[in-house]
Amino acid sequence: MPNINTKYAINDKKQAKLNDLTFKIAQTQYQVDQLQSIVTSLTQKNDDFTALLLDAQNRRDTALSNLNMVNQVTAGIKNMLSNTEMVRDDTDRADKKIEETAKHLSTLINQLIFSVEIIEKLAQLVNKKKASGKIISNELVKTITAASADANNAVAVTLTALNSCYVAKTSGSEAKNITKLEYEQSTELYELITLGKTDNAPETGDASKSAPAKKQPSLSALLLAANHDAIEKYNAAATASNLVTQELAQAQTGLNNATVKLNSLKAGLSAATAAAIAA
Fold this sequence. Notes:
two-stranded antiparallel sheet, disordered N terminus
């Protein structure tokens, strides 16, 4: 009888152990299922946040590219303003020189015309003297005639030069006007990009209560703000994505540990069951 009682006692202990292992397996299995559900959810969440991070990165890169582009345009306009201002100054100096040259040519023409008149009077006097029988050398007549022709040619050439001066002055004036227009438009564009624009607000009907002019932000300011906003959104998306990645890693580690524990318990139950049957 004692042996029978001992046998039953041993069987009860083994059964209790088997029941305990079975309960622990059920608990661990539930834990594994819960962790698997969390890992699946976090995996999807991580994919979503990765996509959001990529989109934020693209927006940040685009905003930076736009800002760099407007900075390049601004630098180009500044360079064009500098060149235009230099051309304008050179054109002013050239215009003044041309005007001075034209005045000198006008004075020279007057002097040449006066010289031609003197030479022609001298030629007429020589011809009269010669016609009256005075002895005048042919060399003197030739010299006076050549001087008269040269003086007339000099007047013609100087007139041509004077006309060229006026043509150059006209072309210079046109270039000056074009340069001035280019400078004004470039300045307006530069101010629009860097300083913004002031719109005249519509009148309210009462001049004393008219709305003040509204200042619009510049293109540079808008793009700078957009770049700053894109950087902040990217940083926020990166922080959120990193947190989700950490959560996923922790949940995956917990799932792995729980799975190892579950497999260990199942192996223990199998061994305990086999031992109980063999006994």
